[in-house]
Design brief:
Blueprint lengths: L1 H102 L1
Length: about 100
Amino acid sequence: MRKSFLAPVALLALMGASACSEKASDNLENAGAAIGDDVSNSLDNAGARIDAGLNHAGEAIDRNTDRMGTAIDNASRDADRKANEARQDVGSAMERAGNDIRKD
């Protein structure tokens, strides 16, 4: 009698454990899928932020390159003007020196 009672109890316990392990397996699968989705979303967000940062850096480089070009152009014009002024000053000084020599 004891054996006949234990067999159905053991069978029920085995079926319950089987159902629990299937539920645990489903939960584990769902958790794995959720983790995978989170990782994928995080990587997508990181990629988008990197792209945005690179675009911002490129725009800043372009702006500052334009500014540097303008500054170089201005400096070149200033140097040309100063060189012309220096040539005129030298020419005037040579002319005065020539006049002084003629007077003597």
